[in-house]
Amino acid sequence: MIPISRAPRGAGRFLFAAILFFGALVPLPAQPAPALKLIPMPREAQPGKLLSLDRGILVHVSSSDAEDRFTAEDLRASLKERGIPSRASGPVVELLHTNSASARALLAVAQVSFDPAMHDEGYVILPRPRGLAVIAATSAGLFYGAQTVKQLVINGEHGDGGHGGSGKDAQLQAATIQTATIKDWPGLAHRGLDDDLSRGPVPTLAFQKRQIRTLAAYKLNIYSPYFEHTLAYAGSPLIAPPGGAMTASDVAELVRYAAQYHITVVPEQEAFGHLHHVLKYEQFSSLGETPHGQVLSPVQPGSLELIKQWFTQIAQQFPSPWVHIGADETNELGKGQTKDLVAQRGLDQVYVDFLRQIHGVIQPTGKSILFWGDLAWHNPDLVAALPKDMIGVPWVYDAKPSFDKYIEPFNRAGMEVWVAPGVNNWRRVYPDSNIALVNIQHFVRDGQRLGARGMLNTVWNDDGEGIFDEDWYGVLFGAVASWQPGESSIPQFQASYGAVFHGDPNGKIDQAQAQIMAAQKLLSDNAFRFGASNALFWEDPWSPAGQQDSAKLLPILKDVRLYAENAITLIDQARAANPLREPEALDALALGARRIDFIGMKFQFADEIAHAYADAWSQQAVTPHSRASSDLIEISNANGRCQDLRDGYTLTRELFEQAWLRDNRPYWLQNVLAQYDMGIQLWITRARQFDSLRAQLSTTHKLPKAEEIGVPVINGD
After folding, report:
1. DSSP states along 64-84
2. Kind and range of the H or E element at 517?
3. Whose CA is closest to 370, among 278, 304, 455?
4. Phi-psi category of residue 503: left, alpha or beta, with phi > 0 → left and psi -120 to 50 → alpha
5. Taking Cα atoms as reference points, which of 546, 607, 597 lies closest to residue 571?
6. How far from 364 is each of 250, 358, 361, 369, CA to CA, in Å?
7. What are phi and psi of 569, to 5 degrees?
8. Residue 618 to residues 115, 612, 689, 695, 707: CA-CA distances in angstroms?
9. Could you tell me the fold of the domain covering 190-488?
10. DSSP state, residue 312
């Protein structure tokens, strides 16, 4: 139980007004209060009784404000999706502003204060005899209070609620709402997600809207799409890939849609580095630091002209007060056109000078400029040379105990700072939350303590294989860390995630996530930096690198596979027991588990094939050849190991394609599917090779040595 701060006494004069407003109604049947499971957990909260929703629920807002009415309708729609209709006979959720007499009366009677720090986005929830009152000073605060109300609605453990019903009526019988006294406001003013739209997957507008709804439901207020070449600019048809970029109409619709959910869309257009997909074209190649490289050259006047063109259009399309210019990882700087300049002035000074020029070009748009804080690593003293109205965004993705040294250079320079942890999804078949949760927890904690104003949690798709629906675990913990004050609790989040995000009352989804994390940790603890990485998934176990990895993997693969397979089983059990929410994220979790399991299967079976062939080779001169032939059948036949590995790639290919197309446009997908096809073809080719060797054995009674056919040598055969 989290204590509630109380208002001063002497509020009895408001009691009569409160009774008049809400009516002296007979309380609905109530049950004892369970522990609260909320994401983010409010600063102060006391659980109340459970009220049955078998008669529906009524959401009432007296305000005529369009934002408030949208909040009410959004809450009604969310409840309706869960089978809870809007009915006056059920409990009432009232949405109130602090300046109303009714809100003042309720706060006074409950002796709960509405503090100045709560003004912008804070809210109070108070229990009523027949429901809840949500009180806030602003429409944003009222919206966030309503999001908490959504989480206070609990569906029973079984679809029929134990009453023998079926369908929505049965779900309605099982639903309850937990009353509570809650006082809450955010730790950081700006709480966002930076979403990579340039390294492969480009989401559909429909999926981005689902992202917006979900981010807002967990109290994030910024969505920052990352562009290198996937934002279409008027007059520049060459850069943006057809079918793989956001158009002006896409932007207009997304910005409009997000505003309803109190989310600001902050565009990030790389304006220094990470521009290879622009500079690879001859029209722009002269602007590159190196031929067809990835860094704009500061000595080319056309570089600033291009930046001006881009950000002039961005300013017209995005009403956000901020733009993000990236400017990270400019590793080619000084290796080409600026070589002489860097020799004269120094690498970091040339970098700072160009950032100042970029600032000068964008400043007339009136936008505040965010940039990645690489300079704090390389030369923290030079941070002070940047314009003070720029906003530094240090990014670090390791699970470090402290992040102070990445934040403090911006503080010393008198600049605003936002922190950027990451969900650790890049180059992995599933995000590694062992690293991500600690990284997010510590970085945001230190940012709050050192006065950071915002957080941009990051999703990157370095090798183009990202499935965003796999990222929600880390994204939601970022929401927790940026809303809650101080150091957020990882165990508390892990105990709430499955129930809140998926509606799983039995903890199976939380257990499945824990199993995936255990598999990832086992891999990373055994010298695999990226855990269950995409590199391991695609690697040929008989290649030289594959053989080195196999030696480290084989002792742990049984446990890795059992963790992954347990996760798949737990997901299925949870789905069988209850109608769960966010099914796409569950599919993505199961896909991640299957891909981890296949990594283990591939290296195990490749080793078993090598041993089987060594045994067959040792028996080739023995008559009859039944044992050698049997070994070859185990390698390649209807149930042979080669066919198993073919089938493993085929199955995960189908599931991956389905997951991709749920989230993304078809653009880029074929690049990933081609890798699946190569893996499938590799094991088909090897299966045919072993089939030929079995035929050869029956006629020549001889087999080639393992190394002659690319099979690893076992026991010196």
Report:
1. --HHHHHHHHHHHHHHHHTT-
2. helix 508-524
3. 455
4. left
5. 597
6. 25, 11, 7, 12
7. -65, -45
8. 82, 10, 19, 17, 14
9. TIM Barrel (3.20.20)
10. H
**Domains 190-488 and 517-709 equal at CATH topology level:** no
Superfamily of domain 12-184: Chitobiase/beta-hexosaminidase domain 2-like (3.30.379.10)
Tens-place pLDDT, residues 679-702 = 999 999 999 999 999 999 989 989
CA-to-CA distance for 173 and 155, rounded, in angstroms?
9
User: Any idea which residue has 């109340």 for tokens?
Assistant: 48
SS3 96: strand
With residue 526 as reference, give the H or E element that holds it: none
Distance CA 292, CA 279 (A): 5
Average pLDDT in the chain:
92
The pair of three-digit structure tokens given for residue 175, joined into one six-digit string: 């639903």
Asked if pLDDT for residue 165 goes beyond 60, the answer is no
Confidence (pLDDT) at 623: 77
Q: How many CA atoms lie within 13 A of 651 on its CB side?
A: 14
Taking the CA atoms of the chain, what radius of gyration do you get in angstroms?
29
Third-level CATH fold of 517-709: Four Helix Bundle (Hemerythrin (Met), subunit A) (1.20.120)
The mean per-residue pLDDT over the stretch 276-305 comes to 97
* Residue for token pair 């070994």: 631
CB 331 within 8 A of CB 273: yes
Phi-psi region of 327 (alpha: psi -120 to 50; beta: other; left: phi over 0): left
Query: How far is 349 from 369, CA to CA, in rounded Å?
Result: 19
| pLDDT value for 528 | 80
Q: In the prediction, which pLDDT does 10 show?
A: 41
Q: What pLDDT score does 241 carry?
A: 97
In terms of Cβ atoms closer than 10 Å to its own Cβ (0-12, 13-18, 19+), residue 548 is: exposed
What is d(CA 543, CA 711) in angstroms, rounded to the nearest whole number? 9
pLDDT band at 30 (very low <50, low <70, confident <90, very high): low
Q: Where are the domains of the chain?
A: 12-184, 190-488, 517-709
Task: Give the pLDDT confidence of 477-515 residue by residue, as tens digits.
Answer: 999 999 999 999 999 999 999 999 999 999 999 999 999
Helical packing angle, 301-317 and 248-260, nearest 10°: 50
- Single out the residue of 421, 315, 290 nearest to residue 365, CA to CA: 315
Query: Smallest Cα–Cα separation from 152: which of 575, 499, 583, 580?
Result: 499
Question: Which residue, 4, 38, 3, 35, is CA-closest to 489?
Answer: 38
Cα separation of 576 and 159, whole Å? 10
Distance CA 359, CA 327 (A): 12
Confidence of residue 529 (pLDDT cuts 50, 70, 90): confident
